[in-house]
Amino acid sequence: MEPIKVFITEDESIVREGLRDMIPWEQYGFTFAGEASDGEIALPLVRKIKPDILITDIKMPFMDGLAFSRLVMKELPNTKIIIISGYDDFSYAQQAIELHVDQYLLKPISKSSMIQALEQTKRRIEEEQDQREYLHRFMRESQGYEQYARRLFFEKLVSGAMRVPEIYEQAAALEIELDAEQYNVVLLNLQSEERTTGYSEQITRLHDAIIQELLRCPDFLVFRCSILTHAIVIKGSAGQLEGLMQRCINTIWDDCQGAAFPLRWYAAVGKPTTRLSGLPQSYAEASHALAFRHFMPHQHVLTADLVLRENENAQSFDAVENGAADPMLIREIIRHGLESEIDDFVSEYFGNLGTACESMMFRHYLILSARINAVAAIQELGIEKELLTMRLPSPEPDAAGDLRGYLTEVLRTAISLRDEENQRQSSGIVENALQVIDQNYADENISLNSVAKAINVSSNYLSAIFSQRTGTSFVEYLTQKRMARARQLLRQSGKRTGEIAAEVGYKDPRYFSFVFKKTQGVTPREYRTGEQEKWT
Description:
CATH class of the largest domain: Alpha Beta
CATH topology of the largest domain: Alpha-Beta Plaits
Shape: elongated
Structural class: alpha/beta
CATH superfamily of the largest domain: Reverse transcriptase/Diguanylate cyclase domain
Number of domains: 4
Number of strands: 10
Number of helices: 23
Distance between the termini: 36 Å
CATH architecture of the largest domain: 2-Layer Sandwich
């Protein structure tokens, strides 16, 4: 820890110089940082030096010690103040107490009393510095949980499940600044060129790099929607929003076009809104545009206006001849699409076919094509086709009459099977991760990275599926595991707090006590003695 900086303000030069010269500053861990004869002269110096301790006389010309202390406390709240006074007057002491000064000493001041006051103040500074460091460390370790909480907040925000006051309240709790004149939503989706929906280390790294670059702009709020998709809420003034939108798209474009591996990438844009309550509509428009990627796989930037123009350009049998009935569209959405996109996909699919669907022969062809290509897509994903054929609806005699309904059911069945297989695989990964945590939570060095390495997956991928599977973040689960064991040891053993801290993965017993109080609501000692039953 660096030496504690001390500044002295005293109008009597004999007293000021005496204080300055009688203390062996370095010997006791201090640095003498400066001096001044009154508060007016001292203030600019104190602002520049930012001392840890300010020693000031209570009565000085131009600006007295109390007025000076008020200004310093307002501008430098972490600076501790020791007031010295030649007046044994309770009113002065009372004002000093109201200001929450650290020490109040009466003249004449002996060397020993000053050193004692300085050392007491130094201990308080060190304790507060420890607490700030512990809080910073705790928040840093809790970052994964905060990201998960942000994801839940975003899901509620775009679903319209919160009233505007609730939005601001929860945003404030997560330290998300939402105030703006206008908003819009961009959905970023990266996909592998391979015929798989599985995880790709390269894509995850690229995703992270893009997100980190976007986060440098305070007007971009980034939320995870799924493993492959992030939402960027863009906020700004009416005159800024268009430029911010372009900056966002340019960032995504530059990073994706510069990728050293083949991928499909899409940025789907909603329509601007002037209200927070309008964000669900902007998100819905962006989602609808993103679903259109299955029809235009080489169109990277997708907008609601683009979708509208393509719908207007779709024409009857010409659309069929131009590939609107391409069976690969069915395979594409089964491999890469979301269940929430099915309705949009089916609407676009039939919209592009136009009057071609009036032919009964063509309708029967589409039924057969949907079934064949659904089976082919599932096999391409490495799933046994029998698992799908057993679930697929058999074409009823009137299926051609409800072609939309039949295609919707085929897609829903195939995508559901795909997601079940992905969930089964991710469930096994999370179960392995939980076993590693349960066996190694007492190791202080255990981390998301070390657990991911132990089970041979990416830490980013593990983070995403861990929260989806368990409803909590990796760090929160680990902390809960450690605190549960700590509670057990506190109540059922006579071990000291330091021993318990080491046994549950904390080398620093003071940090363990900080985390215990932060998460359980009471100190380890209070929990052990049952003084406060606030824990849960």
